[in-house]
Structure formats: structure tokens, C-alpha cells
Amino acid sequence: MDGAVMEGPLFLQSQRFGTKKRWRKTWAVLYPASPHGVARLEFFDHKGSSSGGGRGGSRRLDCKVIRLAECVSVVPVSVESPPEPGAAAFRLDTAQRSHLLAADAPSSAAWVQTLCRNAFPKGSWALAPAENPPKLSALEMLENSLYSPTWEGSQFWVTVQRTEAAERCGLQGSYVLRVEAERLTLLTMGTQSQILEPLLFWPYTLLRRYGRDKVMFSFEAGRRCPSGPGTFTFQTAQGNDIFQAVETAIHRQK
User: Fold this and answer.
1) How confident is the model at residue 145, as a pLDDT?
2) Alpha helices, DSSP H, located in the chain
3) What are the pLDDT digits (tens) for 227-253?
4) pTM of the model
5) ∠ CA 174-180-186, rounded to 5°
6) Which of 11, 134, 200, 238 is the most exposed place for a label (fewest CB within 10 A)?
7) pLDDT for residue 224
8) Sign, CA torsion 152/154/155/159
9) Distance, CA of 74 to CA of 113 (rounded, Å)
10) 3-state DSSP assignment of residue 126
11) Which domains does the chain have, with CATH numbers?
């Protein structure tokens, strides 16, 4: 019998023919790959369904088993109508369709991290490379004048894109990018806890350039950065917000 790596309540957005989209509360169970089965995400009517074998009125939702081998991306998204106050949504894409899911904000972050770890093992990527990936020069760029009171900053969910620098640093999947007073910090969920832990950081004084477009935020790190030199690009719907937060942080240092 497979042991679950994570389980808990998840809202699943569904739509039947001729009806409006609605959120349905489910009990989701994430299983890793094992000799007994493939890595997968299963949805049930309520807690206990996964171990009850269908007894007691519990059942798995029709056609709601997602094989992680078919997953191509897991990214946080914003929605106009979340299922409940404080809920955060994320989208799980397979080659065939997209699944919109939601949970309370901490749980949603944990689901994204855990799904990425199991769907995209080391050496693979959360997003298929774009046919024509945007070049740094094509983004709206701003020269960093800093190259050569406490402010808390902001945090943003991002998904790393394949670049030479990202590959060298072993980055893959989704992370939290935190805009701090003096640097950008990339955080990941701890393997033994659900606490965000720093992974890499880039002082603003060592960034050559930074920029964004509608779906990306990117920057060019200088050779003295802990990551080494190179371009780091992240998919995010909040590229403009990150850009403005970085710009504000840099102006505060002047």
C-alpha cells in the first residue's frame, strides 16, 4: 500500500455542461512513485475516503486522478472569486488540460512545493521551455544605479525558467521570491517542515539589470553574486509588482 506524502482539503473548480464554474471541496491525497504505483494526486469526497476503499459512502471523484508524470507545470495564480476568504489558488497543468485548485494560503504554498518536488525530480523542469523564450533585451529593462528604518519587503510566488544560470544553480519548479531592503532572496519549502528557507540571494548592488513583461520578471546577476553571473528569469503574473518593489527598495538605499 502506498504511503501519502501529503493530504488535506483542496477546493477543485469544476464546470458541468450548461452550468457555471463552481468550487467543490474535496479531500486530496498525494502519492509518490513507488513499486506499488505511479506518482499521482487523487481526489475524494471527504477525509477518510483514501483509506476506506469506498466503504461508508466515501468514494473517489469521477476521473479525478492526476498522474504527476503528465504534469507540465504547477504555478500559483490569482482568481477573482476564491472559494473562501483567505484562500489562495494554484493551477496544475497537464498536456491534456488545466486544473484549478485552492486552499488556505499556507496550505496552498505547501501543495505547490510538494507537488513540484514529486512531479519534477532533479534534472527536470516545471515548465516546458518556450519555443521562443523572451530574451533579456526584449523585456522592459532598467539600468541599476546601485551596481558597482526597517523595510519588510514583499513575497511573490514565481516559477523558474530554464537559463544557463538557473541550471547551474540547480533551480527548478516554484519558489518564493522575497524583495528585501538590500537584496532579493529566493526561498523554498524545507524538506522536514512547511517553513520557507532561504536558498539564494542577490544583493541589489551586484545586479547589473532587472526587468519585466506581462508574464516574467528577470534580472542579470553580476559575477560577485553568490549564484555567480548570469540571467535568472521567473514566470509570474506579478512581474510588474516585483519590478516596482525592487525599484522602491533600490531608491531607499540611495
Assistant:
1) 55
2) 49-52, 105-119, 164-168, 239-253
3) 999 999 998 878 888 999 899 989 887
4) 0.50
5) 25
6) 134
7) 95
8) negative
9) 9
10) coil
11) 6-47+60-120 (2.30.29.30), 155-253 (2.30.29.30)
